[in-house]
């Protein structure tokens, strides 16, 4: 068993020899012999082949299948993990289509198929009896009584496995639905599902949606092309899904890749059982149906030799370094389009509650966040039929404003047809320092100090000069000016809120914040998307220039060459790390150790060493807890994704909770 709740599943459709159990057992053992997995799943009736027809009536075939099962069971004495294989089994006076679970050298239990397809190309009812209330609780195999029934769950470490067989999944209420409510988190399907046009997509959708509905892993293995092709062709489609997402799938006949005939299909995937457990706890409605469940389930604990439990350390699961930014271009564009539409729709509705053409005030810094808010506002006023002039885009240069962002801001305002204004806030700030008797960055000021003289002195300060009041006064003056101008559109993004990287009651406050649920790592892609799809020409190129600007609050003076000195990421750590932590901390509820482990498996844009990653995570956790008081009074704004920090909707936490133990 891996650490951190990682459970490895190998799903395989080995070569099949119709009606030759010994050959099939041999092929299975050859196929899975070197596989190191917690669970190996093989197809429906894999020991005989699914397409044996009336040969299922042959004693020779049935005895051979039982012998094949014993061989596979024996092989698990020397291997890690459980194996689940399909075979025909005599139960009382009938023949049943079953899945046998073997582990640690023994047969742990047998689960029969509940729903037999006997329509169109299928006629299982001719050979088998479905599971039913009269089924025995045990069945004799090679002189041993083995647990038998659809009420069996198999526990291996943190995994609780339930089994269904092919058609079971294609019914309105698959048996795995009840089993999941009874505690199963790994649902297994042994299948023989032939390929016809469009069926693979349907099968994949069923697997994905059942894994999502049951908040579980779902492993599906269909018979391979070695089955008889008298009438049907089987593709060997193996799929593993986890809570609605496909984690991996094998090749299959008809997948459009050559060569078309592959004897053996398989896929190996790592499932995250801790993530599933977290999601089940969070979705409180998940087991509301529990008291309507039929008879209780029997749980069989699988025993394996302790010496064989050590697992490989290389994770097969892809750990996305940028969970908020899809790496595939098409998916990224689709996501940006959807998010931009949600942001605009949120604002359009809010506008509908205001007197027409109320001034919408936005502070335009030339940075990414305010640009995105402006673009959303443009979309919203256009859609609401308000004139663009109702947007009041105001630049408010201060002591730290650089020419680069100032120029971007001016050009942005010019090229969008909004009402523009520029208010130099420095005199107001100087007056405020006087009133507060505050020495900005330690500099002496008196009645002779002018904005120009103060700016000169500020520009000569060393790079490490710091003064929080100096920064906050500028931010608060800007907000005061905006608030007296109209309905203020907030610009702060979700990552800033997570870290508390905003001045309380300044850029933290607004009347509506369209960026409230946008992670920082996605902002530049949203701006680029808008540039490419809605605002082409000159404005489009300007937006691309803005998208390339370093992230900075520009509250401290620029460096002597006029460039941005205060780089946010060098103060608080890289946003790509913070967004990674935010996703796993809030969305998945993972521990510090688990987040560090996942970070060690991800490929970030920058090559951070483990010390930097750990230190940045500590900074994230400390800031996240310390700054809940800011999040507890944020303005309304649209949620766009599963991760959201709204104190009304998604993340309710006392402001005085300590993060010491996290
Ligand atoms: N704020 C945000 N801004 C931009 N992107 C954001 C984001 N939060 C998550 N994302 C991204 O969205 C993607 C999908 O997120 P992930 O956490 O995997 O989301 P997932 O659990 O797969 O759910 C996808 C969507 O379906 C919804 N869902 C799923 C299952 C059940 C229910 C229900 O109501 O019962 C709803 C869920 O709320 C979410 O909106 C990820 O790439 C994630 O990083
Ligand atoms: N020079 C400025 N002129 C007008 N508004 C400003 C100026 N500087 C900051 N603001 C306003 O304050 C908000 C927060 O500024 P800050 O620079 O701290 O954050 P930011 O997240 O980097 O924002 P942006 O990416 O928009 O610069 C900005 O989004 C903007 O609305
Ligand atoms: N073996 C089965 O139960 C096959 C039936 C299933 N509906 C399929 O076509 O894949």
From TrEMBL:
Which residue positions does the secretion signal occupy?
none
This chain's function reads: Catalyzes the ATP-dependent amidation of deamido-NAD to form NAD. Uses L-glutamine as a nitrogen source.
> Could you give one GO CC term from the UniProt record?
cytoplasm
Provide the binding site for L-glutamine.
119, 193, 199
Keywords of this protein's UniProt record, alphabetized? ATP-binding, Ligase, NAD, Nucleotide-binding
Q: What is its EC number?
A: 6.3.5.1
Q: Name the PANTHER family for this protein.
A: GLUTAMINE-DEPENDENT NAD(+) SYNTHETASE, NH 3 /GLUTAMINE-DEPENDENT NAD + SYNTHETASE
The entry's family comment says: In the C-terminal section; belongs to the NAD synthetase family.
Q: Where is the CN hydrolase domain?
A: 7-273
Q: Which gene encodes it?
A: nadE
Put simply, this protein is called Glutamine-dependent NAD(+) synthetase
Q: Which InterPro entries match?
A: C-N_Hydrolase, C-N_Hydrolase_sf, Gln-dep_NAD_synthase, NAD+_synth_C, NAD/GMP_synthase, NAD_synthase, Rossmann-like_a/b/a_fold
Catalytic reaction annotation = deamido-NAD(+) + L-glutamine + ATP + H2O = L-glutamate + AMP + diphosphate + NAD(+) + H(+)
Pathway(s) of this molecule: Cofactor biosynthesis; NAD(+) biosynthesis; NAD(+) from deamido-NAD(+) (L-Gln route): step 1/1
Catalytic residue positions? 44 (proton acceptor), 113 (for glutaminase activity), 166 (nucleophile)
| GO molecular function annotations of the record | ATP binding; glutaminase activity; NAD+ synthase (glutamine-hydrolyzing) activity; NAD+ synthase activity
Q: Does the keyword Cytoplasm apply?
A: no
Query: What superkingdom does the record give?
Result: Bacteria
One GO-annotated biological process of the protein: NAD+ biosynthetic process
Positions of ATP binding: 363-370, 491
Reply yes or no: does the keyword Protein transport apply: no
Q: Which Pfam families match?
A: CN_hydrolase, NAD_synthase
Q: So where does deamido-NAD(+) get bound?
A: 472, 496, 501-504, 630
């Amino acid at each position: 068993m891996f650490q951190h709740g990682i459970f490895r599943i190998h799903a395989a459709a080995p070569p099949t020899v119709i009606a030759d159990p010994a050959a099939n057992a041999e092929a299975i053992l050859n196929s899975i012999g070197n596989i190191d997995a917690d669970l190996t799943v093989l197809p429906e009736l894999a020991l005989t082949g699914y397409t044996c027809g009336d040969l299922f009536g042959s004693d020779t075939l049935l005895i051979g299948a039982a012998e094949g099962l014993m061989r596979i069971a024996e092989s698990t004495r020397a291997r890690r993990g459980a194996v689940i294989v399909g075979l025909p089994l005599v139960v009382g006076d009938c023949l049943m289509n079953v899945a046998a679970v073997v582990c640690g050298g023994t047969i742990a239990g047998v689960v029969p198929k509940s729903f037999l397809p006997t329509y169109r190309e299928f006629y299982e009812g001719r050979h088998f009896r479905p599971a039913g209330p009269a089924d025995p609780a045990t069945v004799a195999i090679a002189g041993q009584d083995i647990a038998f029934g659809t009420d069996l769950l198999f526990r291996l470490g943190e995994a609780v496995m339930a089994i269904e067989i092919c058609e079971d999944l294609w019914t309105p209420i698959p048996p795995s639905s009840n089993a999941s409510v009874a505690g199963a988190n790994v649902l297994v399907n042994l299948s023989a599902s032939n390929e016809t046009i469009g069926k693979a997509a349907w099968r994949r959708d069923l697997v994905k949606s059942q894994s999502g509905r049951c908040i579980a892993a779902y492993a599906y293995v269909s018979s391979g092309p070695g089955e008889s092709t008298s009438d049907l062709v089987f593709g060997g489609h193996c799929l593993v899904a986890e809570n609605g997402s496909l984690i991996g799938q094998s090749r299959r006949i008809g997948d459009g890749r050559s060569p078309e005939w592959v004897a053996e299909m398989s896929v190996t995937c790592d499932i995250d059982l801790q993530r599933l457990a977290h999601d089940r706890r969070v979705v409180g409605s998940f087991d509301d149906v529990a008291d309507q469940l039929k008879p209780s389930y029997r749980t069989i604990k699988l025993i394996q030799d302790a010496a064989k439990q050590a697992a490989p350390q290389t994770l097969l699961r892809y750990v996305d370094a940028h969970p908020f930014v899809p790496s595939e271009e098409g998916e990224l564009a689709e996501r940006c389009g959807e998010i931009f539409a949600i942001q605009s729709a949120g604002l359009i509705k809010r506008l509908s509650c205001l007197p027409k053409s109320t001034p919408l005030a936005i502070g335009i810094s030339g940075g990414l966040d305010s640009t995105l808010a402006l673009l959303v506002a443009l979309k919203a006023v256009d859609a609401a039929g308000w004139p663009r002039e109702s947007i009041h885009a105001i630049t408010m240069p201060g002591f730290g404003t650089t020419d680069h962002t100032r120029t971007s801001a001016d050009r942005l305002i010019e090229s969008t047809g909004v009402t523009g204004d520029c208010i130099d806030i420095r005199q107001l700030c100087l007056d405020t320092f006087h009133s507060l008797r505050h020495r900005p960055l330690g500099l002496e000021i008196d009645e002779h100090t002018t904005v120009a003289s103060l700016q000169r002195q500020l520009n000569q300060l060393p790079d490490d000069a710091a003064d929080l009041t100096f920064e906050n006064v500028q931010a608060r003056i800007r907000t005061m000016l905006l608030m007296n101008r109209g309905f203020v559109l907030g610009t702060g993004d979700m990552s800033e809120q997570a870290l508390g990287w905003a001045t309380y009651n300044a850029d933290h406050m607004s009347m509506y914040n369209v960026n409230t649920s946008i992670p920082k790592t996605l902002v530049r892609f949203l701006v680029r998307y808008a540039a490419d799809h809605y605002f082409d020409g000159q404005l489009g190129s300007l937006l691309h220039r803005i998208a390339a600007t370093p992230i900075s609050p520009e509250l401290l003076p620029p460096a002597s060459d006029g460039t941005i000195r205060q780089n946010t990421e060098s103060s608080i750590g890289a946003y790509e790390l913070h967004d990674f932590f935010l996703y796993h901390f809030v969305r998945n509820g993972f521990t510090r150790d688990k987040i560090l482990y996942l970070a060690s498996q991800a490929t970030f844009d920058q090559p951070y060493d483990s010390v930097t990653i750990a230190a940045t995570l500590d900074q994230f956790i400390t800031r996240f807890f310390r700054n809940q008081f800011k999040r507890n009074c944020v303005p309304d704004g649209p949620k766009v994704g599963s991760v959201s920090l709204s104190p009304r909707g998604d993340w309710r936490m006392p402001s005085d909770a300590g993060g010491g133990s996290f």
